[in-house]
Design goal:
six-stranded mixed β-sheet; about 325 residues; nine-stranded antiparallel β-sheet; 25 strands; single chain; mainly beta; Immunoglobulin-like; about 45% strand; globular
């Protein structure tokens, strides 16, 4: 904890989190390693709606390295046991009061499948339909979660968890900043609060595209003209996909090919999301090189996919 402030109408916290896995960062059991980000959160009540709170997050990466595209748990939601009925709108007609879907998350070590949440919210409630509803404007419509057995309460391990599939690539001095809304009480009332927020809040696109590089595989040996291929999609739209070799732009991929198989892992994903690029390896010296693929959406958010080490032999 670096700072905390309590005022009549807000709570503010600034923290520097420790690494989730310290073992590969010079730490280990009993030896935490602080991360290279600051997380600031400001909580205020939403005056127009009872039992509704806005959490403004600002995550600042002050490191000089590049963190590739990954889920940021913006936010991670944990509730006490007993609030184990999860609700969301899994329809393809959001904001029409379509019937909701209710599921129970699987017990750890299983992790729930990717759930479609077209209205960008999820709720954990008890048998009386009361609980916590979380709305994340601008998120891609995907959520995952689990249940963990154990003692309930603030110090128990038992919990029900979910988090949006919010992707982001943290580069040097980059910032992820946005709002999350918490609504306590009956989830049906919370949905109507969210509808009002959806209709009045300015539209924002915070997160990077989701995607993957299928070929070449890491450590592949390349020669001649080689295909670079994969898929990428976004909650708005992908503007372009670019390929770099050793940090230098190699070219822009052709985008919009068919990949209907992606929807088996990402429900209702569009099908015209494949990209491909013909890489002329004769332009590069024989030996080891690093390939990087980036997908950019129409708002300028850049997804940096993990580096692919390759060897060129011509």
């Amino acid at each position: 904890m670096l700072a905390q402030t309590v005022s009549p109408d807000s709570l503010y916290i600034k923290a520097q989190p420790v690494q989730w896995n310290p073992d590969d960062k010079g730490g280990g059991p009993g030896q935490p390693v602080v991360g290279d980000v600051y997380v600031e959160a400001t909580i205020t009540a939403v005056s127009d709606h009872a039992f509704t709170f806005k959490v403004h997050y600002k995550v600042t990466h002050f490191g000089s390295d590049q963190h590739t595209n990954s889920i940021q748990e913006f936010p991670a939601v944990y509730v006490n046991l007993g609030f184990d009925r999860f609700f969301s709108d899994s329809s393809t007609t959001p904001w029409t009061n379509a019937p909701l879907t209710s599921v129970s998350m699987p017990q750890l070590p299983l992790f729930g499948p990717t759930l479609y949440a077209s209205e960008q919210w999820g709720a954990y409630v008890d048998s009386s339909d009361n609980g916590l509803t979380v709305f994340v404007p601008g998120m891609a419509p995907y959520i995952g979660g689990f249940a963990a057995a154990g003692d309930s309460g603030p110090f128990g391990f038992g919990t029900d968890y979910f988090a949006p599939r919010t992707y982001f690539s943290f580069g040097p001095n980059s910032v992820l900043e946005g709002d999350v809304y918490l609504v306590a009480g009956d989830y049906k009332h919370a949905r109507q609060v969210i509808y009002d927020l959806h209709n009045t809040l300015p539209k924002r696109d915070l997160f990077t595209p989701i995607g993957s590089v299928d070929t070449p595989a890491p450590s592949a040996q390349l020669s001649g003209t080689t295909s670079v291929a994969g898929w990428a999609f976004d909650d708005t739209a992908v503007s372009k996909v670019v390929i770099y070799i050793d940090g230098v732009l190699a070219g822009t991929a052709t985008y919009g090919g068919s990949r209907p198989d992606v929807a088996s892992d990402w429900p209702h994903a569009p099908s015209a999301i494949a990209y491909s690029f013909s890489l002329d390896t004769t332009k590069y010296a024989d030996g080891s090189h690093t390939m990087e693929v980036r997908a950019i959406d129409t708002s300028g958010n850049v997804a940096v996919f993990p580096d692919i080490p390759v060897t060129i032999r011509n």
